Amino acid sequence: MIAIVDYGVGNLKNVYTALKRLDLDVIITSNLNKINDAKAIVLPGVGAFKDAMENLESHNLISCLSANVKKGKPLLGICLGMQLLFDKSYEDGLCGGLEFIEGDIVRFSNELKVPHMGWNSLHRNKNHNLIKNVADGEYVYFVHSYYLKTKNYDDVLLYADYGVKVPAVIAKDNVFGMQFHPEKSSDTGIKLLQNFKELII
Amino acid sequence: MLTKRIIPCLDVDKGRVVKGKKFENIQDVADPVALGKYYSDQCADELVFYDITASHEERNIFLNIIERVAETICIPFTIGGGIRSVEDFRKVLLAGADKVSINSAAVSNPDLIKEAALKFGSQCVVLSIDAKKNTKGSWDVYIKGGRENTGIDAIAWAKQGESLGAGEICINSIDTDGVKGGYDTVLNEKLSKLLNIPIIASGGAGKLSHFEDVLKCGADAALAASVFHYKEIIISDLKNYLHTKNIPVRRCNY
């Protein structure tokens, strides 16, 4: 069973539908026991970084997620959910993150249109089973105003170009992240979620 | 590279697509889900479903449509028509929509933009503006489906919308809408230079080069309805055409 973490930010149904379509056993939950029992965790999210961290905190989810990650359980963060995996974000001031992977979340330069919105092409930085069968130049749907400035570029599997190299798929041990919306990215998105499924079963 | 988006718009009345020609491969062309899927398969980048249902009682039909679209189609879609409150936003987002477009309601209550952006994020707030050229060489904002001139300057309103937290501006040019003589490239260029958020051009598409013209003028996306519904332009052909004109587009089957 896969637990999609429900912490009161945004609509989780589209992620749920996409995983269900892959014949996965999925639940949407904020119940700590269910998250502890799950085989893998998906952390979605849209909206503001600080609100998301406060909501995780108020649901007692921060220590729960940390404990599960330490145990080696696979965790996939999507969009804001990916950003939360890092040390801190500069969105509306400064806010600490889950600190599973080293890196900061920073805003795009104002010389660009922000949000970075639309279909952008993916380029390979490093091979990994999470991105197998995804060819260089395939498109996925992004919508975000902040991006990951990573400490270790080795954590980045795929990136997109938007003024800077925007980390799009990241992996470090059992922690994974997708900055775009795989559930909204047509065939390429489905392929990436399918790869995630194969990693965890 | 970030691509320019092509967005078909479907007008839906009581759960049925209003205009459209018979398509091969679709059994029920008036079913918004079937038509949306067809466009998605043709490589449309996003979809807009615009609810024109007049009576309030029948609006729940539309929520059901949104749910079915979200279950069937794996590209982003926007919902517009009849959205007046944060609660309306919540309903359509929970049904599975990715973005919500507001028009007249934002003019009468600009704080709606701010409240929705704070609550659900700017990424889902699309400010749609009906603009018509006036005799002074600028553009006025119209409301109520283009029937009423507010006298508000369209460019100033777009700028205000951005600062209130809109994530995107959809600019519908009343002068060019339905004429099929091309988008208002002048207005789109001005807005694109002035604003820091993406611009969707709407109104005026008649042939392939119209898309090229407006996307080269700075618009980030081009929206159209009838040229797609009446099969005058096939989206995959349009994408191939734009590609040959060096406009970055996402192509699906080539």
From TrEMBL, chain A:
The active site is at C79, H181, E183. It comes from the Bacteria. It catalyses: L-glutamine + H2O = L-glutamate + NH4(+); 5-[(5-phospho-1-deoxy-D-ribulos-1-ylimino)methylamino]-1-(5-phospho-beta-D-ribosyl)imidazole-4-carboxamide + L-glutamine = D-erythro-1-(imidazol-4-yl)glycerol 3-phosphate + 5-amino-1-(5-phospho-beta-D-ribosyl)imidazole-4-carboxamide + L-glutamate + H(+). InterPro entries: Class_I_gatase-like, GATASE, Imidazole-glycPsynth_HisH. Pathway: Amino-acid biosynthesis; L-histidine biosynthesis; L-histidine from 5-phospho-alpha-D-ribose 1-diphosphate: step 5/9. It is found in: Cytoplasm. One of its GO terms (biological process) is L-histidine biosynthetic process. The keyword DNA damage does not apply. GO terms for molecular function: glutaminase activity; imidazoleglycerol-phosphate synthase activity; lyase activity. SUPFAM superfamilies: Class I glutamine amidotransferase-like. Residues 4-196 form the Glutamine amidotransferase domain. Its EC number is 4.3.2.10, 3.5.1.2. Keywords: Amino-acid biosynthesis, Cytoplasm, Glutamine amidotransferase, Histidine biosynthesis, Hydrolase, Lyase. One of its GO terms (cellular component) is cytoplasm. PANTHER family: IMIDAZOLE GLYCEROL PHOSPHATE SYNTHASE SUBUNIT HISH. Heterodimer of HisH and HisF. IGPS catalyzes the conversion of PRFAR and glutamine to IGP, AICAR and glutamate. The HisH subunit catalyzes the hydrolysis of glutamine to glutamate and ammonia as part of the synthesis of IGP and AICAR. The resulting ammonia molecule is channeled to the active site of HisF. This is Imidazole glycerol phosphate synthase subunit HisH. The lineage of its organism: Bacteria, Bacillati, Bacillota, Clostridia, Eubacteriales. The gene is hisH.
Automatic annotation (TrEMBL), chain B:
It catalyses: 5-[(5-phospho-1-deoxy-D-ribulos-1-ylimino)methylamino]-1-(5-phospho-beta-D-ribosyl)imidazole-4-carboxamide + L-glutamine = D-erythro-1-(imidazol-4-yl)glycerol 3-phosphate + 5-amino-1-(5-phospho-beta-D-ribosyl)imidazole-4-carboxamide + L-glutamate + H(+). The active site is at D11, D130. Its EC number is 4.3.2.10. It is an enzyme of class 4 (lyase). Keywords: Amino-acid biosynthesis, Cytoplasm, Histidine biosynthesis, Lyase. One of its GO terms (molecular function) is imidazoleglycerol-phosphate synthase activity. One of its GO terms (cellular component) is cytoplasm. The keyword Lyase applies. GO terms for biological process: L-histidine biosynthetic process. It is found in: Cytoplasm. Pathway: Amino-acid biosynthesis; L-histidine biosynthesis; L-histidine from 5-phospho-alpha-D-ribose 1-diphosphate: step 5/9. InterPro entries: Aldolase_TIM (IPR013785), His_biosynth (IPR006062), HisF (IPR004651), IGPS_HisA/HisF (IPR050064), RibuloseP-bd_barrel (IPR011060). Heterodimer of HisH and HisF. Belongs to the HisA/HisF family. IGPS catalyzes the conversion of PRFAR and glutamine to IGP, AICAR and glutamate. The HisF subunit catalyzes the cyclization activity that produces IGP and AICAR from PRFAR using the ammonia provided by the HisH subunit. This is Imidazole glycerol phosphate synthase subunit HisF. It comes from Alkalibaculum sporogenes. The gene is hisF.
